[in-house]
Amino acid sequence: MSNSRKIIELFYDVTSPYSWLAFEVLCRYRNVWNINLKFKPAYLGGVIYGSGNQPPGLNPCKFLYMVSDLTLLSKYFGVPMYRPSVLPEKDSLNAMRFVTAVAEREKEGDALERVSKELWKRMWRTHQDISQFSSLTEAGLKAGLSANEVEEILTLSKSQPIKDKLKRVTQEALEYKCCFGLPFIVCHVNGKTEVFFGSDRFELMAYFIGEKWMGPHPNKLTA
Ligand SMILES: N[C@@H](CCC(=O)N[C@@H](CS)C(=O)NCC(=O)O)C(=O)O
């Protein structure tokens, strides 16, 4: 199994803090495991409603659990994040269309990675808005894109092909019939496919793909 081509697809949304954790960890493992990592920007609202689920924060018990869970996980994974005192407007449609446009435009390089991380930081670290176009512009510039690039990406993000692309990718996750939230991770190995929900399934995922889980900081072990 270890010599076969292993593809890992990460469906994520930048309003999902658990997606951020999964994103950071998979980036750390990208050159440690024999994997081809593919980022799939999707829309959390579409996944929740399309699967008949409810936003997790609406259930008060689940919400309280998530607050303490994320505080601990953020330390464990080494991804500083803080819950805002007032939960921000969570709709991520504009942000995910923006991210989808970055992905569409990117032929090579790491703009998608930088922009996604910047948006997570804004929402979960510095508590800034990520729904207004002006905020997306700021995030794009902070992620190192030029003003021209950001303008092009914003225009592209409002186009029908990009709206359709985000819908298609979200639908692709839903078509697995067992996707009800994010992050949603799909692993393909030797013609077999297995799916995982959450940033807390890496040990099992590693078992499935025939790689070793070395905790959230694989590079620190060899340093
Ligand atoms: N246990 C998972 C929780 C992931 C999670 O709660 N994701 C949220 C979005 S941030 C979600 O989609 N929840 C849907 C649900 O719990 O039904 C993890 O550690 O990653």
TrEMBL record:
EC number, UniProt record: 2.5.1.18
One Pfam family in the UniProt entry: DSBA
Keyword Methyltransferase attached: no
Catalytic activity: RX + glutathione = an S-substituted glutathione + a halide anion + H(+)
Domain DSBA-like thioredoxin residues, every copy: 8-209
Keywords: Transferase
First-tier enzyme category under EC: transferase
Matching Gene3D superfamilies: Glutaredoxin
Domain of life: Eukaryota
Entries under InterPro entries matching the protein: DSBA-like_thioredoxin_dom (IPR001853), GST_Kappa/NadH (IPR051924), HCCAis_GSTk (IPR014440), Thioredoxin-like_sf (IPR036249)
Similarity comment text for this entry: Belongs to the GST superfamily. Kappa family.
Name of the protein in question: Glutathione S-transferase kappa
Protein's organism: Labeo rohita
